[in-house]
Amino acid sequence: MPEKVLTHIDANGAATMVDVSRKAESFRAARASGYVEMQPATLTMIIDATHKKGDVLTVAKIAGIQAAKRCSELIPLCHPLGLTGIDVEFEIDEAQSRVNIEAECRLTGSTGVEMEALTAVCVAGLTVYDMCKAVIDQWSSPLSNYFRNPVGNQVIGARHRESFVFRLA
């Protein structure tokens, strides 16, 4: 089995963009999924479309699509891609009190689209949070145990139920 190497590091240890110019073009697709967990009252506002900011999932879908298209502007060594298909879908899971998010990106090209799919899920999830944060008084993330509320300067601990998690599917 060949030794695995970091492809974005050159022989001198410097960051570099992978050269895919000699790779053959082929159909490529990637799916990513994640979810935003929330309190039942917040989920009910999304389901009933009673949120004062509007249709949370439509805005999050557009944000996810836009993020996938601009992935190379957010992640420095990603190639700019001409995506030919982006799907961002949501599923309400009332039993778990969460919104499941799934994104798929497609193209015919010489590099994969997994970063674009992951970016779509992340930004869609962050958009759900952003639109709902006015009604959420508790938030925790697996990436950070504490969140400082700049208005009240209150530290909110990880015992609370709002979270955002993603996984490559």
What's the arrangement of secondary structure elements?
Elements: E1 26-37, H1 40-48, H2 56-69, H3 71-74, E2 85-93, E3 98-109, H4 114-132, E4 147-149, E5 154-156, E6 163-168
Helix pairs in contact: 2-4
State the gist of this model.
With 169 residues, the protein is an alpha+beta fold. It has helices spanning 40-48, 56-69, 71-74, 114-132; strands at 26-37, 85-93, 98-109, 147-149, 154-156, 163-168.
Strand % is 25-35%
- Give the count of helical stretches: 4
Describe the global form. elongated
Structural class from helices and strands? alpha+beta
Across the major sheet, the strand order is: 2-3-1-6
Describe the largest sheet.
4 strands, antiparallel
Question: What's the average pLDDT?
Answer: 80
Euclidean distance between termini CA atoms: 25 Å
Fraction of residues in H or I helices? 25-40%
Q: Indicate the low-confidence ranges by residue numbers.
A: 139-169
- Radius of gyration using CA atoms only: 18 Å
Give the total of beta strands.
6
List the helices and strands in order.
EHHHEEHEEE
